[in-house]
Amino acid sequence: MPILEIRHPLIRHKIGLMRRADISTKNFRELSQEIASLLTYEATKDLMLENEVIEGWAGPVSVERIAGKKITIVPILRAGIGMLEGVLNLIPSAKVSVLGLERNEETLQARSYLEKLAPDIHARLALIIDPMLATGNSLVAAIDLLKQAGCKEIRVMVLVAAPEGIQHLQAHHPDVMIYTASIDECLNEKGYIIPGLGDAGDKIFGTI
Ligand code: URA
Question: Which residues form the Phosphoribosyltransferase domain (predicted)?
């Protein structure tokens, strides 16, 4: 499946603001949530609708509602929490399934330390959120885990993606659609995205 870089002017503007070296924690947090909302709008564009007749102010009226699968949002700890509110703003009744993954800074491999999934996750569309798609190791591990739990449809939303990570993810999970605010240039030798945003978790939590 392809990757979609959402080149909406609001997203271009906001991601530009996030790249400033002197950005405050408050602004970084707010922009993460705002871009997450805009990505959610795009990532849910093709959800199926069904008709329903309800009692309106002037009598029965036919309206539409989202049909089929319900949604679970899957933030990857800790940085994924920085996008959660933005997604919930648009999908307030979604269940949240939390995955704790940490990467070994030497091997860059991901290890799971927490899995708190919605019990009916197999029947839900999973929307994974993580600000940075760098090596792709965490996302591959997260998708492996969700598929083992029975998830059949998974989408990923990230703020910034590196070409190396996109390739890695697509090689392992070609069925998973990726939505991003920006495809950046490359990874540096420490696994950081260039130009990127720096350490998104530290910036969201103010632990720099
Ligand atoms: N994680 C981050 O927070 N930033 C990067 O550039 C890569 C991984």
Answer: 7-207
